[in-house]
Design goal:
TIM Barrel
């Protein structure tokens, strides 16, 4: 770990710079407007305890959006959601009053208490499989929902995966594009040139593809490591997502929790959200 690294300094920069807008620079804190906030409600707490407490917003994680086939084994089934099932889940969320937020909105809320709508939920899609564009995007649009798509770049333009053009289209449609490494290798195993190959280069490629910085990251397999935090920060990220392991309350922005959402009924999905968040 770099001796000049301090997670607290990184958090402070996020708090000052904010998280909204695709062209905001995570390492360039903005100046406060003179007189801003005078006469308004007290500023939200930004100590570790308060930041960690705000990290309990529901975050759902999807992978392949397609119908399962006989060739799909038992291990693959939880990661496959049929389009019709996804539609029912999204309808259940909408009917229950949930409103989707962007990844940037969630991070701004966690880091500095920026307000969220009532009953917020963040939808995320990992890996860049083709059905996320052909099947999931139309469903999201029908419900007026937004989502964050974590893209591994090795698969782009290959059969069964997102194309570069589709990644740009998702970004233009109001979705958020996040990083997910080059080839889905587990972050705790990185050493030497792995950081450049798996983090730096894919992040630059995605930024060039969509025309603005990539700020959010998802750990492959949900496996995170504290040693990754300075590497991710230096690559331009301001937050990262794991899966369902307990939140490390000393680094809440760098291991935000998600639950994998298999082919649950809409009612089951709502129960799981209430139980786990």
């Amino acid at each position: 770990m770099s001796p000049r690294w301090s997670w607290a300094a990184a958090l402070l920069l996020v708090l000052l710079a904010g998280c909204g807008g695709s062209d905001a620079q995570p390492s360039q804190p903005s100046r406060a407007t003179p007189g801003a906030g005078q006469g308004s409600a007290p500023a939200a707490r930004t100590d570790l305890e308060a930041v960690a407490r705000r990290a309990e917003v529901p975050v759902l994680c999807y992978h392949q959006i397609r119908r399962a086939t006989a060739a799909d084994g038992a291990q693959a089934r939880p990661y496959i959601v049929a389009p019709a099932v996804l539609e029912r889940q999204m309808r259940a969320l909408a009917d229950a009053g949930y409103r989707t937020v962007t990844g940037d909105q969630l991070v701004a809320h966690v880091a500095r208490g920026a307000p969220l709508p009532p009953k917020p939920v963040l939808l995320t899609f990992d890996d860049a499989t083709a059905g996320q564009f052909t099947e999931a995007l139309p469903i999201l649009r029908r419900h007026g929902f937004v989502a964050t798509f974590f893209v591994m770049t090795v698969v782009l333009d290959k059969p069964g995966w997102l194309t570069r053009r589709q990644v740009r289209a998702l970004d233009r449609a109001g979705m958020t594009i996040g990083g997910h490494t080059w080839d889905h290798s587990a972050v705790p195993e990185y050493g030497g040139g792995d950081w450049r190959a798996q983090i730096d280069e894919p992040t630059r490629e995605l930024a060039e593809l969509v025309g603005h910085p990539i700020r959010l990251f998802a750990y492959p397999f949900g496996e995170w490591d504290r040693k990754a935090i300075p590497r991710l920060w230096e690559a331009g990220y301001v937050a990262a997502f794991q899966l369902a392991d307990p939140l490390d309350r000393e680094h809440p922005l760098w291991n935000l929790r998600r639950i994998i959402t298999p082919e649950w009924s809409g009612r089951r999905l709502l129960r799981e959200i209430e139980r786990r968040f």
